[in-house]
Every structure is written in C-alpha cells, then in structure tokens.
Amino acid sequence: MAGDTWQSVAVERVASPTAWQQHMRVRCAVFIDEQRVPPHEEVDHHDGLGALHAVPPSALHFLATVDRQPAGAGRCVIKSEGTAKVGRIATLPQFRRKGVGRAIMHCIHEHAARHGCVKSTLGAQLEAVPFYERLGYTVTSGVVFLDAGIEHVDMHCELTP
Fold it and tell me: Mind listing the pLDDT tens digit for each residue in 48-98?
C-alpha cells in the first residue's frame, strides 16, 4: 500500500520529556541506526530538554505520530534574520511515503511563519531532493557537500504567512 496516506497523522511541537524521548528515538533509529551517522554528529547544542525550555528556544522540535505511535520527527532553528533552518527530518521506514514527512514539514512551516520567518533553508540528502521540491524548495547552488558522510545540497523556499 505504498503511497497511501495515513488518516491519523498528528504532528505536535515537543513539549514534554515523554515526547522528547519519542522524538529522539525516531531520530536515532533513522540517522544513527539506519544511516550510520555517528551519535556525536546527530545530537548538538540545539537538542536536549534544556533547549526545549529555553526562552526563546534555540530550536523547535516536532514529533509525528500515527495512531499515537511515533512515526517521524523534525526540528527547526529560528535564525535572527527571519530564516528558519529546517533539519533532522526523519520518518521511520514503515511510515515512509504515507504523508508523515509532508505533515512534519507543514507543521514546521506554520510554526516558523508564526515566529516571523519568511524563508526556510535546509541541507537535503540527495535522495530527498524530490521530496523537498514537491514542498516548494529549490536547490540553492547545486554544490554537493558531505554532512556526516552523506551527500547533501542546500535548498530554500519562501514561507507564506
């Protein structure tokens, strides 16, 4: 049933220790276990419960669930120049191609716009470029770079208020 969308995808901003643990389990399963990203490169100063409760927060973290089961995660760093830096978008394998990633991105865009962002940027893994293009992103320069040993390109899109 690849390509079907889940009717019960819910995306929320992470605000509790339980949601934080679920968010990090998704990221670790995708980036560390599946893609072999070293743990010290996956987690940075924008992560952790302290980052969640900072005022203003250094990053907004999101958790997608399907039937209350963790399905995906993502985060967004709000830059001072009205730009949202999207990253750590992860969907567990059994939920891919079912609208979970798209739901995460729409939620991130809504929150970023509420925080005054007019533009979103991200570093996309090459295989994910078509996904981001369908969401309105364009490749910024086409220069391929390595992040955690994985080829990426920079992309951007304008956010609508």
Answer: 666 555 556 678 999 999 999 999 999 999 987 899 999 999 999 999 999
pTM of the model: 0.89
The residue extents of the domains of the chain are 9-158
CA distance 17 to 1: 34
State how far the Cα of 130 lies from the Cα of 6, in Å rounded to an integer.
21
CA dist., res. 86 & res. 136, Å (int):
14
The residue type at 96: R
Residues 6+ apart with CB under 8 A from 141: 153, 154
Q: Are 154 and 123 in contact (CB under 8 A)?
A: yes
Instruction: Return the H-helix or E-strand segment holding 152.
Output: strand 150-158
9-158 CATH fold: Aminopeptidase (3.40.630)
